[in-house]
From TrEMBL:
Keywords: Ribonucleoprotein, Ribosomal protein, RNA-binding, rRNA-binding. Coiled coil: none annotated. Pfam families: Ribosomal_L21p. This protein binds to 23S rRNA in the presence of protein L20. Part of the 50S ribosomal subunit. Contacts protein L20. Belongs to the bacterial ribosomal protein bL21 family. GO terms for cellular component: cytoplasm; ribonucleoprotein complex; ribosome. InterPro entries: bL21-like, bL21-like_sf, Ribosomal_bL21, Ribosomal_bL21_CS. GO terms for biological process: translation. This is Large ribosomal subunit protein bL21. GO terms for molecular function: rRNA binding; structural constituent of ribosome. HAMAP family: Ribosomal_bL21 (MF_01363). The lineage of its organism: Bacteria, Pseudomonadati, Bacteroidota, Flavobacteriia, Flavobacteriales.
Length: 124
């Protein structure tokens, strides 16, 4: 079972107990957050929202607030003596998906495979 959820303007494919980094979220470490803009769910059957699936939420726990690696921006114009070097570190939040709630609870049932016919059964 997984879902495509929009978090802070970006779309993520999430599953139960998955850890991921998203753009900085307001909240304390150890706090709970929930996301209700679910674009697609797969729980045996595929449900596509138009634009979002209603009644389903994704619950997550904030594990940490971190900064990403530095990104260097370097601009240069040749033969003109123009060089500019800038950089920045993106603020990220590490979250762990604790659950996807709101499904009807129906799980996909697998059909039992029929035993192949044997020659003895065919002869009788």
């Amino acid at each position: 079972m997984f879902a495509i959820v929009e978090i802070a303007g970006l779309q993520y494919k999430v599953e139960q107990d998955q850890k991921l980094f998203v753009n900085r979220l307001a909240g304390d470490i150890g706090g709970k957050v929930s996301f209700d803009k679910i674009l697609l769910t797969v729980n045996g059957a595929i449900t596509v929202g138009a634009p979002a699936v209603s009644g389903i939420t994704v619950e997550a726990e904030i594990l940490n607030h971190v900064k990403a690696d530095k990104v260097i921006i370097f601009k240069k114009k040749r033969r003109k003596g123009y060089q500019v070097k800038n950089g920045h570190r993106q603020s990220l939040t590490q979250i762990q998906i604790t659950g996807i709630t709101g499904f009807d609870g129906a799980k996909k049932e697998t059909k039992a495979k029929k035993a192949p016919k044997t020659e003895e059964a065919a002869a009788e």
